[in-house]
Amino acid sequence: MKYKILKVCALLAVPAAVLGAFGCKHKVSSNEGYLLQDTNIYPEVQAAYEEESREAITRLLSYSSFPTSDGATRAAAELFAYACYNEEYIDKYVYFSDRTGSTDLGATGRSTVTNQDYKLIIYENDEHPGYKYHYTIKHVDEISGVISMFQSLFESGTQLRFVDDTDKLYRFNGRNAEYIEDDSLVEEVLTCEWTVNSSAWGTDDPPIVKREGEKLTLEEMEADVLNSARNGWENVMHGNINILADDIVESATINSTTADGHTVYTIVMDIDTEVANADEASMLMLHDANGSDDCEWIGPEEGGDGLKIIFQIWENGLFKLYGLGETWSGTTNGFSGTADSTLNVQYSYSSRDTDMTEKLAMLEEAKKTQE
């Protein structure tokens, strides 16, 4: 998986202003996308687990010469968990996710698919209503062999889910996914056409509110991850990995740099695939994410490329970005084979990047088409 890890590492060095997330072209608005402009700007929001994160950073730094020690691996795992659960308590955030996977189905054929997500959350409080704007675009980059006849299976699921301040859900379906033609972009970014999904238009949806009550402890987080996985709910823990499982992190390193006058920490974790494959929550999340009942990660000892997480956090513990490289085998869309996947996710917390003006205008225009 060297080429994938290099891609993730390269992302860490790319100026964020030339990356970013673009929304889709659609038939009800002239807007063509949204650029994350402030990924290098220190977060405007307060991190719930800032104190815990700073303490874990200090511990991880103290173990920097012993990356395989229990102290280093546990501190890194805690930092990733805190960063994930911070999203449940902060006022707002937006991220752009890019995942590319290559699937080898042997004599049946091969495919390369890109999946991009843009997710903007503004939680409800006394001053502002809650909003959710979340799209997923899938595109088959290459496909060959018998599975070419089933390309639509690999490209299905392109959609936009919009929850407004009245707690109503408005869903759009995407079609004609393609890459934006702009040579100035370092990363290839997908766009598509949106059409109204009348079967899920103006239906009731739960309000977009922050997690209530006291902050979860690490033990409560692990229980929450397992409970969500068992019930098929959207899991707070990213990467489909229960990072708090015992001994799941094999080694962890940490380095620091600065951005916007604040310290940014880069943590690299090697994941034990044998432990991950034996962990119930991790397996349930992996199966759900890939639409498979039997997939599991392949480590180097089985001829795979292993499992690695690279992430950056601000000094307060909030994600700046994270990346995942993995190899797994199993059955998906009715075909059996192996898959290599690389994931890159960028975050912003600024008022500019979380502004809802254009998105709400898009929704109002779409509503007029249904009158």
How would you characterize the overall build of this protein?
The protein has 371 residues and is α+β, with helices and mostly antiparallel strands. It has one domain (2-368). The chain is built from eight helices and twelve strands. α2 packs antiparallel against α3 (70-86). The radius of gyration is 20 Å and the shape is globular. The N and C termini lie far apart (51 Å).
Concise overview:
With 371 residues, the protein is α+β, with helices and mostly antiparallel strands.
Topology:
Layout: H1 2-13, H2 50-62, H3 70-86, E1 92-104, E2 109-122, E3 131-145, H4 151-155, E4 159-163, E5 168-179, E6 190-204, H5 218-231, E7 249-259, E8 262-271, H6 273-278, H7 280-290, E9 296-297, E10 307-314, E11 319-332, E12 335-348, H8 357-368
Helix pairs in contact: 2-3, 5-7
What keywords describe this structure?
371 residues, 8 helices, 36% strand, globular, disordered N terminus
Query: How many distinct beta strands?
Result: 12
Rg, rounded, reads: 20 Å
Report the oligomer.
single chain
Which spans of ≥5 residues are poorly predicted at pLDDT below 50? 1-32
Percent in helix: 10-25%
Q: Which H/E pattern describes the elements?
A: HHHEEEHEEEHEEHHEEEEH
The profile of the biggest β sheet is:
12 strands, antiparallel
Q: Total domains, how many?
A: 1
> Which class best fits the helix and strand makeup?
alpha+beta
Mean pLDDT: 85
- Supply the number of helical segments: 8
Shape: globular
Straight-line N-to-C gap: 51 Å
Strand content: 35-45%
